[in-house]
Write a structure and sequence with these properties.
The complex is a heterodimer of chains A (about 120) and B (about 110). By secondary structure, chain A is an all-beta fold. Chain A contains no helices and 11 strands. In chain A, strands 2, 4, 5, 6, 9, 10 and 11 form a 7-stranded mixed sheet that branches. In chain A, strands 1-3-8-7 form a 4-stranded antiparallel sheet, with no helix packed on it. Chain A starts with a strand and ends with a strand. Chain B is about 0% helix and about 50% strand. Chain B contains no helices and 9 strands. Chain B has strands spanning about 10-15, 20-25, 30-40, 45-50, 55, 60-65, 70-75, 85-90, 105-109. Chain B is globular. Classes of the chains: A mainly beta (about 120), B mainly beta (about 110).
């Protein structure tokens, strides 16, 4: 079974440009999450999809970030316009839905390293 | 949300047993304790999860005392490939994971 995949693995863009990151979750996983680690900081939650619906987007830093999950399959995270402080590693994770007790394990992708110059 | 405290780093030699303790004094009644492992240039990977007493799987054991205010991840006979960052997380729902700084384990030959 394929794991969570992310594309691209690395992106270098200039300040003010737009970048779109893609995440393909494990097939059948209804939960999809985005996280990011900014240089030297901890991994931080960005948002959570359940199928195509945004369940929690409390971690999105500002309106320059737009996440979508059309059809409840893959998801994209667009940063427009990118700023220097957006540099970091963006992780996507997915998990199953409906466990009776306790959190399901989340399966993480390898991350996309974004460098804004 | 329960705050966790764990050592910043630990060193070990191959073949030794490594125990990483995490403190979570304000853990809630329905919180679970979960450990993730992260290698460089990879996303975190689930290792083990427990609620109380002891849980064991093929890679690790998790010891949780009766008061649940701490937990210990035990890695038996570590190898060089166990060099990674280990995160202790406490929570109940599946909405989001709250990562701390983790413990950087370095295994030497």
């Amino acid at each position: 079974e394929a794991g969570v995949t992310q594309f691209p693995s690395h992106s270098v863009i200039e300040k003010g440009q737009t970048v779109t990151l893609r995440c393909d979750p494990i097939s059948g996983h209804d939960n999809l999450y985005w996280y990011r680690r900014v240089m030297g900081k901890e991994i931080k939650f960005l948002l959570h999809f359940v199928k195509e619906s945004k369940q929690d987007e409390s971690g999105m830093p500002n309106n320059r970030f737009l996440a979508e999950r059309t059809g409840g399959t893959y998801s994209t995270l667009k940063v427009q316009p990118a700023e220097l402080e957006d540099s970091g590693v963006y992780f996507c994770a997915s998990s199953q839905l409906g466990r009776l007790a306790g959190p399901y394990e989340q399966y993480f992708g390898p991350g996309t390293r974004l460098t804004v110059t | 949300l329960a705050k966790t405290t764990q050592p910043i780093s630990m060193d070990s030699y191959e073949g030794q047993e490594v125990n990483i303790t995490c403190s979570h004094n304000n853990i809630a009644t329905n919180d679970y304790i979960t450990w993730y492992q992260q290698f460089p240039s990879q996303g975190p990977r689930f290792i083990i999860q427990g609620y109380k007493t002891k849980v064991t799987n093929e890679v690790a054991s998790l010891f949780i005392p009766a008061d649940r205010k701490s937990s210990t991840l035990s890695l038996p006979r570590v190898s060089l490939s166990d060099t990674a960052v280990y995160y202790c997380l406490v929570g109940y729902n599946t909405d989001k994971l709250i990562f701390g700084t983790g413990t950087r384990l370095q295994v030497f030959p």
